[in-house]
Amino acid sequence: MIHWFHLDCAAYKRPEPFLETLEASKELLADAQRLAAEAKLGIAHRRLPRVNGVERSPSNRAQCRSCRGNIERGAWRIPLVYYQEGRFAPSGYIHVPCAQAYFGTTDVLPRIAHFSPDLTGEDMRELDTELQGSIRSELL
What digits encode the pLDDT tens for the residues 50-62? Predict the structure, then answer.
């Protein structure tokens, strides 16, 4: 079975097959370097392809897959998905500040922005602040 993906989605969600296809392709892509870098980042950090945007938690019932704490109502959370048997399956959430511990990197903003296109500039600044806070807490 053949699955079709937008180029960004393929680089973010299916990095290994994307890089194989990119290397085998004779077509020149305008954004090939950026896409290849994102795919390589997804390979280097095996959980990174699970990022499926960001949203505000509607309740305090969801539990973070990283720290196991409840995600408070109104807090930013990152939905996670697994790619299994040709489809994406929801697999829970993590707190935004848990990104470093869960993914091994905080370089998630391009993925978050891609899969949550309605975010405002203020939302992105707030998310960046929370991500930077996770780096500081890792260093302490």
Answer: 999 999 999 999 9
